[in-house]
Amino acid sequence: MQAYRELAEQRRAKSSQFSAVQHTLLTKRKVKRRSELCLAEVQQLPEETVSYKAVGRMFIACPLPSIKQELTSMITKAEEDIAAAEPQEKYLEREIQAIDKDLEKLADEQDEKRQADK
Asked: Would the pTM of this model clear 0.85, i.e. be above it?
């Protein structure tokens, strides 16, 4: 019974970590997609276009190349974060599957033990 509790606790912990990694991936993918869309729109504008950057509740005049550079760096950062989190997601998924198999094996052993006791 103690082994079952330990495995169940490990599964809860790994599932929590897995959910956090999935949330991170989802957020980073959204940021990347939104930045790509904004950059595509900004690329169409002439370089002399007056542009503004949101700062809190205000807008500040900002040169268009600076905005393009910022969007490009946001895309690059999101790609790096996604690349770092994807292996972690796969690892946690494999760990959860392994724990599930161990739990099933433990349950089967308990069933066999009960059958033998009858």
From this structure: no
